Amino acid sequence: MLFVKLPVRDLATARAFYEALGFRIEETSSDEGEAAVVLGDELVLSLQTRERFAALLPGDAGDPAQAPTAVHALTADSRAEVDDLVGKAAAAGGRPGLPPREEDASYTGSFSDPDGNVWEIVWIDQLHVIN
């Protein structure tokens, strides 16, 4: 499994944002300092208060609201799913990213969550890749 840990300013706001995108919160792994967002069978996003996140580091945590600290990418099953997830992000308080990009075998949309964490949603045309 992969656990991605992100610092957030307001845990309730961050939690509501990811729930609005259609992701499930694993309550047994969540508490007042952390929300475990299930992104897939083997992928969990751990939203942590800045205090909880800082306890994991020897130095200061970066602030994605000031400058991106990473770009996270998830795959989608279709172009429509890319557009749907980007639209849900905007409706839930996220910020738009780059305009959608179409390449030979892929389609990518992007957004930032309320804390400034950057996400790309990518559809890959498997038929084009295989041939």
Structural class: alpha+beta
Return Rg in Å: 15 Å
What portion of residues belong to β-strands? 35-45%
Terminal residue distance: 30 Å
Largest sheet at a glance?
5 strands, mixed
Number of E strands:
9
Q: How are helices and strands ordered from N to C?
A: EHEEEHEHEEEEH
- What is the percent of helical residues? 25-40%
Low-confidence stretches: none
Total helical segments: 4
Shape: globular
Model description:
It is a single chain. The chain is of the alpha+beta class. It contains four helices and nine strands, in the order βαβββαβαββββα. The chain is globular, with a radius of gyration of 15 Å. The mean pLDDT is 93.
Write the layout of secondary structure elements.
Layout: E1 2-8, H1 11-20, E2 24-25, E3 34-40, E4 43-49, H2 50-54, E5 71-76, H3 79-91, E6 95-96, E7 101-103, E8 106-112, E9 118-124, H4 126-130
Parallel strand pairs: 1-4, 5-9
Antiparallel strand pairs: 2-3, 3-4, 6-8, 7-8, 8-9
Summary, kept brief:
This protein has 131 residues and is of the alpha+beta class. It is built from 4 helices and 9 strands; from the N terminus they run E-H-E-E-E-H-E-H-E-E-E-E-H. A hairpin with a 2-residue loop joins strand 7 and strand 8.
